[in-house]
Amino acid sequence: MSAEPQEPEKLHGGRLVARRLKAHGVRRVFTLSGGHLFSIYDGCRAEGIELVDVRHESAAAFAAEGWAKVTREPGVCALTAGPGVTNGMSALASAQQNHSPMLMLGGRAPALRWGRGSLQEVDHVPFVRPLVKLATTASSTAEIPGLIDDAWAEALRPHSGPTFVDFPLDHVFMEAEEAEPAEVPARAPALPDACWTARWRCCAMPSDPW
Questions:
Q1: What is the β-pairing status of strands 134-137 and 162-168?
Q2: Cis peptide before 159 (omega within 30 of 0)
Q3: Over 98-127, what HEC string results?
């Protein structure tokens, strides 16, 4: 007897985000905990991506740019909706001027309730567009993997720089089938964590605890 065909696996939007980040070699995401991002956090934990929780969104965004400066790979931060994203805009401007490859993931109020005054409802794209190479909003759960791939490629394309994608709360918590992923370009072998620690030590102030 032939085996019955298996139905494609469905994953929530945050897991789809994390799957694509992992495929591109992301090991850390800088963030400040916010409810619009919980699905992404869940996906990162499931995929083994470290969440570095800071105390202000600007610190998360500047940490992502610093990561890009040191590694020349896109640094990734995740900022909650409204003031979370706007607090990270100075880092986007810095990444733009320094040509630092960077990907900012934004939370966003639910699409199905847009215009009804949901918590921290702000259309971020017009604000960040002058500072980034690509700024877009996921219009469905199914298109999330492709948007991550596009933003990653654009961040690295010369001249490198920051990109931005935000995810409405309903889309990032709903499920969709994982589409056939785009081919990921070959990457240089990652240096071990000890090498990155040594680089950070070279940049640290003498009073920094190591």
A1: parallel
A2: yes
A3: HCCCEEEEEEECCHHHCCCCCCCCCCCHHH
Please give the average per-residue pLDDT across 43-71, as a whole number.
97
Question: Which own/partner pairs from 50-55 qualify as long-range (CB within 8 Å, at least 24 positions apart)?
Answer: 52/28, 54/30
Tokens of residue 185, six digits: 């370009």
Amino acid identity for residue 173 in this structure: F
**Contact residues for 122 (Cβ-Cβ < 8 A; gap 6+):** 81, 82, 85, 86, 109
Does residue 66 register a pLDDT over 70? yes
End-to-end CA distance of the chain: 62
As a whole number of angstroms, the distance between CA 6 and CA 3 comes to 9
What domains are there in the chain, each with its CATH number? 10-179 (3.40.50.970)
Provide the token pair at 58. Answer: 């600007």
Element (H, E) at 42: helix 38-47
Band (pLDDT 50/70/90 cuts) for residue 129 is very high
CA-derived radius of gyration, the chain: 17
